[in-house]
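ingest -> validate -> predict -> emit
validate: passed (alphabet ok, no gaps, 307 aa)
predict: started
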Amino acid sequence: MESHSHPFVSVIIPVYNDAERLKLCLEALENQTYPKTGYEVIVVDNASDEAADIKGVVAQFGQAIAAYESTPGSYAARNKGISLAKGEVIAFTDADCIPESDWIEKGVEHLLDVPNCGLVAGKIEIFFKDSTRLTTVELYESLMALPQQEFLENHRYGATANVFTWRNVIKDVGAFDASLKSSGDVEWGQRVHSYGYQQVYAEDTCVAHPARYSFQQLYKRTLRHIGGTYDLQMRRYSSSLKMNQMFMSSLFFNLTPPLQFALTVFRDPIIKNWNHKFKISLVMFFVRYVSAWELMRLKLGGVSERE
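emit:
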């Protein structure tokens, strides 16, 4: 039953093949402090392989329902979830995230407390396979992965691993750009800001997210991120001159050795091991040059990667 203090919440989770981690996410969502009659969880299968049996996984959890979206891309899947949602509040997380037990409760509190609130971006806590033996990529991720407060305060968006909003806000500003495979949360969050809505970062509204631990995982993430950014720029700048300027600026940035980043890492008092400092700096070189090559591939007619 919906009330002012407990509006009905629809949690939307896109998933592509990630059945094992989805189970952990749904277990956490099954055991929320929010009243069970006050929320639903919509899992949108984005054309996973049949062997993943996403529908069978979802059927194990009483709060969850399964949906399907064949158009590739998590934002197309999120839009499908929005179309089915019953909630006055819409919350987003990802299949590989583990929400805290009071995640829904805290997210709703912030929506209610902030006047004209369009978006609550919650904390994304990074965790590791073995915190006593971090891989080189995990060391890098410990500094760089999903800095939600920075996303919101400096760039006016929240990563959809942890975002709450009102259904009426989506009705006003529109849903996600389903043609984007990445950076759809950037475009949507900045659209919410441009409409004059308040945005808030919520440290106490937390989900845990696994760090990428291999160069292969980081490579795939980098390709997806650069592709999404490139596609977004293509939509924003109709002028070929402006697009070429943005391309050259991005290319130059990524081909320039990240010496400032390395200097910051070596000065960081939290990272005390000099070998770790060196390794983190090398990973940034890797990310920059992979980004540059992907930009050139896209400029020459390539298509952005889905995963």
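The chain has a mean pLDDT of 92.
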